[in-house]
Design brief:
The strands form two sheets. Strands 5, 6, 7, 8, 9, 10, 11, 12, 13, 14 and 15 form an eleven-stranded antiparallel β-sheet that branches. The chain is elongated and about 55 Å long. It has nine helices and 15 strands. It is α+β, with helices and mostly antiparallel strands and 316 residues long. The protein folds into two domains: 107 residues, Probable inorganic polyphosphate/atp-NAD kinase, domain 1 (Rossmann fold); 155 residues, Sandwich (Tumour Suppressor Smad4). A hairpin with a 2-residue loop joins strand 8 and strand 9. The N and C termini lie far apart (56 Å).
């Protein structure tokens, strides 16, 4: 029997570094194929172990001389490494290797082809994009509180299919077990109280599309957070609201509230609250201080991406 292959590549000083989550993706390409392609471009790689800390591995790579950080994985893994890249002000590459790849999609990558992202390490176009922060933790996409966050924490309810998640919210919102969040928003010098069923705080504006599928953000450099609130209301009002939300038509709908600001505080009278940060379960302690760090992430996109092509056209 052959000896097990060493899946950790030794970092060469002055080289970019890519952390690959082998438990992400749909198997095409495989993690090994992605690693081989990255190595061929001179990118050093490491497979993320099941119990390993992605942020610690990224910091160790920088300490050994890495010139850029990248991660191939889902949105949650991306955020862990992006926090290190933003803190240290080094370039970052987001290889879409997860299920939905929301951030990579909104950044202009081809989320159907992880291999197409790799040239960003060598001939990429740099752009400054925003990140959100809540309680000191970075998020690239959004933070959820309420019914949807409860699903993320419940293994029996968890699903990677957002349409199914949206449909599951309907009986939860109308059921007897629903527990509205009694919270307040402190924003722009005023305080607003809500009994909310769902709260979604986004890094830049989703526009808001639909609960079935967040169709994406037009910008990642707006410099603002957007909060979307579905309030507890009478059943008839909620039914009309959810129908409009599922269809992406929520402007001025009863029970729907939006905020936009560079920072705000959400206060809540419980010692802890379940949340989802970029789709990953976490427990946070109120109050929740949200802020946007405008242009904090030096994102590299490949020349073949939407923004890479736009930059090339601008130079001509």
């Amino acid at each position: 029997m052959d000896a097990p292959r060493d899946r950790r590549r030794r970092l060469v000083p002055g080289r970019p570094f890519l952390l690959v989550n082998p438990r992400s993706g749909d198997g095409s390409p495989t993690a090994d194929e992605l690693v081989a392609e990255a190595n061929a471009l001179g990118v050093e790689t490491e497979l993320l172990g099941e119990d390993a800390d992605a942020a610690e591995l990224a910091r160790a790579a920088l300490a050994r001389g890495a010139t850029a950080l990248g991660v191939a994985g889902g949105d949650g893994t991306l955020a862990d490494v992006a926090q290190v890249a933003a803190d240290e002000d080094v370039p970052f590459v987001a290889v879409p290797f997860g299920t939905r790849n929301h951030f990579a999609r909104d950044a202009g990558y081809d989320r159907e082809d992880p291999l197409a992202a790799l040239p960003a390490f060598t001939v990429g176009v740099e752009r400054r994009v925003d990140v959100g922060v809540v309680c000191g933790r970075l998020f690239l996409n959004n933070v959820s509180l309420g019914v949807y966050a409860a699903f993320v924490h419940d293994e029996a309810q968890r699903t990677k299919n957002r349409a199914l998640a949206g449909l599951r919210m309907v009986p939860a919102v109308f059921g007897r077990s629903r527990r509205p969040l009694d919270l307040s928003f402190a924003v722009d010098g005023r305080r607003e109280h809500h009994r909310a069923l769902v709260v979604l705080v986004a890094n830049n504006d989703y526009g808001f599309q639909t609960l079935a599928d967040l169709e994406g953000r037009e910008r990642l450099d707006e410099g603002q957070l957007h909060a979307y609130v579905i309030e507890a209301a009478k059943r008839r009002t909620l039914l009309a609201l959810l129908w409009r939300v599922l269809r992406g038509r929520v402007e001025r709908a009863a029970g729907w509230v939006e905020y936009a600001a560079e920072s705000f505080r959400v206060e809540f009278h419980r010692p802890r609250l379940q949340a989802a940060i970029d789709g990953e379960p976490i427990v946070l302690e109120p109050p929740f201080d949200f802020e946007v760090r405008a242009g904090a992430l030096r994102l590299l996109v490949p020349p073949s991406s939407r923004d890479g092509e736009a930059a090339a056209d601008a130079r001509q």
